[in-house]
Write a structure and sequence with these properties.
heterodimer, A: 58 residues, mainly alpha, rod-shaped, B: 238 residues
Chain lengths: 58, 238
């Protein structure tokens, strides 16, 4: 059975968990968005390069 | 294996499936750890604040582990000039800074009800704050120098010098008088903690470790793409 009532210590316990969720959430979102941004940038630049090499391609 | 993965293409092929797999393992371990965190009985002295331990201690372990990885990557970059070493170091720093920040904040939130203070300038807490400053210094140095090779070299030297802080953090509770409790898990004679608390702590610690592994691979992948994008942009401009 889960004990989700920390009583008088709630003012310390919940902020500790909330900050952990926020910081870990930031780590996940920042890491994934960076990866997505640079992957898209490589794809865009590679498409530009192949277009420049072969202008007849759509 | 390290030799094989030092090749960017092999690393990209490996991390393409390994990063999400390790990420899923992290989610499972952390979910199980959180379930046990709120299932174990409260401590007879610390009450419910003992549950902060299950997020504070793994964050503190990871703060030090990430820095050891940063030091290892910096050494490989400086000495062996591995092509991925700089990317590996750059990927470690923000994650390590995040875990160090968490260790400090959750420790402070645990310390206030138990010690009666948010912060004291004792050896353990001060050395962990220095660790956070080292991470910030590493990232600032990387960002401040335009030439990436010079930036990587300067930041790697800083990271290697900062390695001296790791044994200071570990042994600070033995070498100096401190409010912080001494080691209760990795100590001669075995852990002093009850098994009921060891399980959630271990699950959360391995969960944080897996989370770091997964995000580290994702960040190294972005670094490889960033370098490739910069190369392609230069070609296009030239």
């Amino acid at each position: 059975m889960l004990d989700l009532d920390p009583g008088k210590y709630g003012a310390f316990l919940w902020p500790a968990f909330a900050i952990s969720v926020l910081v870990i959430g930031w780590m996940v979102v920042d890491s994934l968005s960076r990866a997505r941004h640079w992957r898209k940038e490589v794809e865009r630049l590679e498409a530009l390069r192949s277009e420049a090499k072969d202008p007849s391609r759509p | 294996m390290f030799q094989a993965l030092a090749n960017p293409q092999r690393f990209m092929d490996f991390s393409r499936w390994a990063a999400p797999l390790v990420g899923i393992i992290a989610v499972i371990l952390i979910a199980m750890g959180l379930w046990l965190t709120f299932s174990v009985p409260e401590d007879y002295q610390q009450g419910d604040t003992v549950r902060i331990m299950f997020i504070h201690v793994p964050a503190a372990y990871m703060a030090m582990f990430c820095y050891a990885c940063l030091g290892g990557a910096s050494f490989m970059g400086l000495v062996f000039r591995h092509s991925l070493a700089d990317a590996a170091g750059r990927a470690c720093a923000p994650l390590g800074a995040g875990f160090t920040f968490l260790a400090l904040v959750t420790g402070s939130l645990w310390g206030r009800p138990m010690w009666g203070t948010w912060w004291v300038w004792d050896a353990r807490m001060t050395s962990v704050l220095v660790l956070l400053l080292l991470y910030i210094g590493y990232m600032a140095l990387q960002a401040a120098i335009d030439d990436e090779v010079k930036a990587a070299r300067a930041a790697s030297i800083l990271a290697l010098v900062g390695l001296i802080n790791l044994p200071i953090i570990k042994f600070s509770v033995d070498w100096w008088n401190t409010l912080h409790q001494p080691a209760s898990i990795f100590r001669a004679g075995g852990p002093t903690m009850p098994a009921a608390y060891l399980w959630p702590l271990a699950l959360m610690a391995f969960g944080y470790m897996a989370l770091f592994g997964s995000l580290w691979m994702v960040r190294v992948r972005s670094e490889v793409w960033r370098k490739r994008a910069n190369g392609l942009a230069l070609q296009a401009a030239g």
